[in-house]
Amino acid sequence: MDDKLQELDALQRTLNHSIDTFRCELVAAGLPPLSLQATEPHPLDDANYLPPPRLYEARRLAIASIVQLKSLLQFPFEKASEEAYAVYDRACLDVMIYTGLADCLGKAPDRKKGLHVNELQKELDMDGRKLTIVLRYLSTQGWVRETDEGTFTLNRPGYELLQGTLGRKRLRTPYVPEIAGTLVNWLQHPEWKYSDSAVQTPLQIVHNTDLPLFDWVKTRPDVYPYFSEGIRAVGDAYIRGTLTDYPWKSLEGKIIIDCGGGTGVLSIELAKTFPSLRFIIQDLPEALEQAKSQIKTLLPGADEEGRVTTEFQDFFAPQCRKGDDYHYLFRHVLHDWADEDVTKILKRVAEAAGTKSKILFMETVSIPGIIRNFGDETALNALNGITYESVSPPPFIPANLGAASKPREGLVLHLLSMFNAQGRTMGDWKRLVETADLELVKIHPMRADVSVIECALPASKTCEVC
Description:
Elements: H1 3-28, H2 53-73, H3 76-84, H4 87-98, H5 101-106, E1 115-116, H6 117-124, H7 128-139, E2 144-148, E3 151-154, H8 166-171, H9 176-181, H10 183-187, H11 202-207, H12 213-218, H13 224-237, H14 239-244, E4 255-259, H15 265-273, E5 278-283, H16 285-298, H17 302-305, E6 308-312, E7 326-331, H18 339-352, E8 359-363, H19 406-419, H20 426-435, E9 439-444, E10 451-456, H21 459-465
Parallel strand pairs: 4-5, 4-7, 5-6, 7-8
Antiparallel strand pairs: 1-3, 2-3, 8-10, 9-10
């Protein structure tokens, strides 16, 4: 049999299996059928709903299969042509958000029918002829549909463009197209191309600044709120998986040090969910002022009760909290720093940790997208419990599940472009941990954009202390 036909058959079987599994899991969870033409969001679209493990992975595997099939079947020139115009993807979404077009369609008296471009022209004072072309382009990606010639309405994903949604906040992150546009020049920059400095990135090229990202945004009050909102949206979108897929209750009885905890959002959410846990948010003074305000707003009384408190700590300096009474947590911190700096940070924790302390960091673990022509085509069947595990890739599906990992890999690429952030694999993390005189205990996958990397003092160090 022809190799390509074998690949086609394998991908078809994987797609069928993942869709059949997804459908069964919808029924088992008591969820309604999916429809692009729904006039309201589906429960699966709500960030506060956490899909069961098998449903979550079936959806990811279906997406991976569909895009692998598309790449297999599509005329390569047409694939290249799509990418030639991909810059208009974000531009057309900007039109939807910044002109009020999305909100106008969302307020249509009849959401099934939508609005004619002449009505949109009158409402928005924009040329209906031009809007037609923009909306037809967006319809090829499922954001809208044309219900009659010149009449458009939002598809279900389009509701994520409406005022107040997490998707809209994410899309309002400023300067992403401009930063991306300098990538090719940055990668070939004579002085910077091998640099890991946070002040030698596309950000400095675009804005003609010598400041690193976080210092630069402080000088731009017009940008800072949208930048912060975009970062917060990522955490909020995956908060249920974050709270569920690590055994946080196992940390009871000790104080959790939230190192570089910023505004304290994670500690506050964990304290809400697990009232017996206690947290100290450590950071620099400016961040701590915001953290104190967040605690008072989101969890009144927690500071006074000692459930969530704050204190100054530079994580490059000796850690002031030492011994078995503490666990140490880093969330979205270590990817900001080069290997040498991460080693310094972790060594400070290793010096302070007790033999019973856990050192946790919540980070993206990049998975090489290796494709093999073998694997378990029915791996979803093994995910029958409530404990989340990521599915092993079937034949001809990338190990990182390809298109299903695009949001995560896109974030890694953007962070690289913004401040030379690192995209580390499990092997990279293990090497860094061991260089810092720690031991990698386990990587906990989560239904989120990050995993929890759990470390401790190595057994040899534990014996020395004993």
